[in-house]
Amino acid sequence: MRTLLILIPALPLAAALLTGLLGKRFLREKSHWPTILAIGVSFLLSLSLFLEVRRYSEAADVAGWEHVETLWSWMDIDDAYQFEGESRNFAIDVTLRADALTSVMLVMVTFISMLVAIYSAGYMKHDPGYSRFFALIALFVFSMTMLVSVSNFVLLYVFWEAVGACSYLLIGFWFQKKSAAAAGMKAFLVNRVGDFGFALALFFIWTVYGSLNFHDTDVHGTPVVVTAAASTETETQGVLGRSRLEQGDYDGYIGGGIGLTICLLLMLGACGKSAQFPLHVWLPDAMEGPTPVSALIHAATMVTAGVYMIARCTPLFAASAADPYLLDVGAEVIAIHGPLVVATIGAFTALLAGLIALTQNDLKRVLAYSTISQLGYMFLALGTGSLAGIVFGMFHLFTHAFFKALLFLGSGSVMHAMGHVIDMTKFGGLRKLLPWTHWTFLIGCLALAGVVPFAGFFSKDAILVEVALAGEADSATGRWYAVLYWSAIVTAALTAFYTFRAYFMTFFGPLRVPHEAGKHAHESPGTMTGPLAILAVFATMVGFTLIGSFGGFLEKTPSLAYLNRHTSASDEADPLAAQATKEHHYQVHTEVAMLSTLLALSGIGLAAFLYLGERREVQWFARLPVIRWFYHLSYGKFFFDQIYMVLVIWPVRFLAWLSYLLDRWLVDGLVNLCAAAALQLGAILRTLQTGALPFYAFLMMLMLLVLLISAFWTNLV
Amino acid sequence: MPPLTELTLLHLVPEIVLMLTATAIYVVGAFGAAQQGWSWMAQCGIALAAYALYFQASIFDDGLTGPLVIDHLAFFIRSLALGVAALLVLLTARAARDRQGPETTGSVLLVMAGVMLSASAADLVLLFLSLELISIPTYVLLYISRRDASGQESAVKYFFLSILSSAVLLYGLSFLYGVGGSTYLGEIRAALVTASETAAVPGAISLAHVALVLIVGGLAFKIAAVPFHFYAADVYQGTTHANAGLLAVAPKIAGVVVLVRIVVAAMPGNEEFAWKLLLVMSMVTMTLGNVVALWQNNIRRMLAYSSIAHAGYLLIGLAVGLASTDQPIGYDGLAATMLYLSVYALATIGAFSALSCLGKYGPADGQLDALSGLTRSQPIIALAMAVFMFSLAGLPPLAGFWGKLTLLGGALDVYLTPGDADLRRWFLALAIVGAINAAIAAGYYLRVIAVMYFRPAKSEPPLLSSYGAYAAMLVCALGVIAIGIYPGPLVGHSAQATESVRENLELKSTKDVERSP
Q1: Of the candidates A686, A707, A712, which has its C-beta nearest B206's C-beta?
Q2: Tens digits of per-residue pLDDT, A283-308?
């Protein structure tokens, strides 16, 4: 298992180094081979790791199963923290972990990456930066696999930054294009805001919990895993370690104001990486990167890092939910807790992105907003705070990876054929021209819209069920969840509509091809359609095949199993009923399923009504003043970019200008003044150096006399 | 004074070996037997002396014997002096092949023997003699190694001013004898302790102040501190690179160690006045050295002012040691001075060796412009020179950084320790002046680097002319880098050297060599 854990990230790293160093000179048009091979083997290794983990997990009890490997100790500072007599060591071990959550992420990441890498071999052909592209892809896969398998918050942060850096490099891959370079910068800077929150969260966690490791360690620094024998003594408690998870009634974790603060800061980090409101603005612009990058990073893998991180920190959020922060607003007391905030942000983002996606004309932008919207669903699911909610949030992440990669690669195939034009108003009726792309894209759309029996239906439906259940509770929180439920339902309808709007605009109507495509626009090569076909099969299958077993497997992750082990007080009173609700969670909820299917079909129907045929209805529709007003709002993306420009960028620019002036005139002036003063002093003093021996002797004696007088003077005083 | 015995003689074996070697070189050289071997012979003598030093350090405890004090400070300085001797012999290896070879090499050995002797002398007479043992061969060296007008001018200037300062020192020593009633430092210390405790001898303290001023003045010449610094610029400029290196290092080591022995250790009750004197001298010295160095176009002259500035830095540690008598901070200050002395010696000899590689006094008699574009013709020399300049400027991670850090840290420690507000203010001012000076100094050190690296070569590239100097340069560069990266051992030794300088002079010390069987 140690070998597996090391090799999975190591192979892409080796490929990245190899391609990066030798690519341009030696590999040239063969640059894709190291990357594809490395990721392919990584995928097979991930698969065997997954099987291994499943074998152990099935045997494990309710505590779950984990395995931690220490590679080396990065730093170990004794007594780094001393406060009121307590002193702690600051140690960062480079540790890799294997558990259900990690293994699922690894399989998903490597599988999608492998397909995208194969697809890129066709898509990126003849690009001057061919080897650079594959080196970066391999580096990204290394960072992402490390991100999901490290067992320490600092390392998580390191690779969190590393995927951010890879993303920056890949968005700005065509850096000669000004818009691409600017988009890369925007993505990086917006992410920095989130990272700042994440870093603060780490400081809080370190201060509150005294460790940044996920796992416990014994006196020798060896990891103590949850299934370890009872004789293994814990020396340092990890944040998600055995000793903490075993304490009942959320005793191991901190709720209240501090707990909420940690949750909010972690959520801020997740908002940056996973493009949630208010930090969602970077993702649509990130579509400036090559389309495979959009598919890999901005749909399937990197943006899920935030979801992964929140899921990983489940116990922290659960503790916040158990002991909410009570906000006193005069008339009543509102209980705010971490999951509630996560759910609210998720639902709001989902709705907002859905509304924006309605009117976009850029095919990739529609997909980008749909990604934001679907990520919102995932956070909504995580925000229910129940085990089933989190598990289904992760399941949606899993299925979404397949169909969103499929859609992006499909749009890439369209772009490839249309000579890199992606504006849907410039082409149409492509279903005959691009048959493979058309059919696979249709499957992707059906999955995204949540139509039975495609993958998206099952995961989205499960999330809606969980939110509905959370909304049944008769409390202020419960009513709020009910509001979120209806917002999610509306979003589901919007999703179906904008997805099929894009589909009909692209593939139906009279055949129109932009002149950039040249005379013979044609279907993409096999290296591109092959991955599309494979992804289409998976987008169809993963929903109903895995919905039953996914949750049972994932809940063996120790930090998720925590929710199972420590049922709330009411559940403990009636364990049978609690068990019953849990069983219930894994089943299709008929009402919700009916409702969502109905909404999906009506959304598709509306899209068909408006965008099939002559599109006269749309023109009539667009003349309505309310719709016009709304159209501008949506088309302008609710003007977030402009709002940020005024609220953030202008003040910062002004400060920068002010600082520049201060530095230029005040600071530099002072420095120059000092230098001039030193020089002038030297000019005066050097006149003493006449070169005449008697003068020197005279001065020496004179000064000696001064010193002697001063000696007597001190005696007299 | 403890009685003089054969043990005393045994302790002097390293110095005796050096002097015997020097004598042998003089005598054999007079007959012109060998043309090449002087340097090798001298190195053998140094190795032998080093062996004797380490051998006796391993078998004898610290203590007093005859006019000698045997302690860690003496051991530290004598080791340093032997290392410097080896480097200087390498540096003068080319001169040793000229007609004056035997005299040059022998004189270097004698100078360094004088430095070693001054480190362990505990008697005013022996101290004065050891300082003269440094001065007299230096006159010879200055005279023989450069026969043109400027060489003669510098020799004469040094000769007269040195004699003047010796006279001042001797005058001061006689006052000290008057106050203490003895030429032995231990007894002087005992007498002054009594005087300050009982005030039995009225006027003794004020006379001690006069002695202090005169002694510090005389020794200020050795370390080139204001107001006895005038000779440095003219003499360095007028002589060879090798001589300038010797002048910048050897007397400075002796001056500092004698200051520690007399002013810090043997004159209790005068600390109040002494630290003020040294502090003011320190501030004036480093400021003057640095601001005037900014104007120099001759590199030897520039390094002369730099050596004046460093004398100012060395005084910081002594002032700290005097201001916080018998406190750990005070000893840390003294230790910082010892550390600084070592790293300064290494970088300075290195710089003069690098220059020496390009000829006896350089392609254009030390004009800075002659180094233009050196990085293209002599990249290794340019790189080594850059290392020395950075170290002298005190940039991490080179040795000079640790020197400045510990010195300024010592001054700040005095400020941070609760105590007399006046004293704390003075030392805060000292630390600030020191830091500002470090910034000023960077100006002219970096200029050397700028000339070597960023200016096109003006004349034809200078040739490598001395392999000895080249070797010395490499050794110094490696040393500067090694100490910079791993300063621990040197810091430890310097701390050990100064931790009990005062107690070592106590006559009743149980450490007395004579009392152990």
Answers
A1: A712
A2: 888 888 888 888 888 777 888 899 99
